[in-house]
Structures are given as C-alpha cells and as structure tokens.
Description:
The protein is mostly helical. Helices cover 93% and strands 0% of the residues.
Amino acid sequence: MFDQSTLQQIQSLEGKVRQLVQLYQAGQERLQAAHKEIERLQQVIQEKDTEIKNFQNQDNITKIVQTIAVDTASSTELKLKINEYLREIDKCIAYLKE
C-alpha cells in the first residue's frame, strides 16, 4: 500500500507533530505559571498599598497629635486613641469588603 519512503515521511511527520504538541503543552504550563505569578504579585502590590496607607495614616496622626497636644503625656494618649479608632475603622472597612 505505502512504500518505504512514504512510511518514513509519515513517521517523520508524526515525530514532528509530537514535538509540536510537547512544545505547546510546555508553553501552556509556562503560561499558567506566569498567570499564577501575576496573581501573586498583584496580591503583594495590594498588601504593600495597604501598608503604605497605614504608614501615611500614622504619619498624619503624628502630625495631628503634634499640632494638638502640648505636653508629652497627652500627646501619647491622644495618639494611642486615634490609632485605636483607625484600627476599628480598618476592621469595619475589611468587614464591608467581604
């Protein structure tokens, strides 16, 4: 039915198709890994943004306390109270996001 040359060509073509399928599968695996890495990095960015906001809030609190409070004792007390309020606000925000 097929001569030797035709069989060799078919076998060669099969080998190339297998290689192509393997390359495609490897590419898909790399793509999935890249998507997972992107998701992880987006989560890290979100966490860092939250940290930055918290630091900015703390800096703002310090500035407010320094302008309001005259003595050190009331300054520390005021700062602690404001921090407590901010933690409660952050909890409320987190709860509303759920």
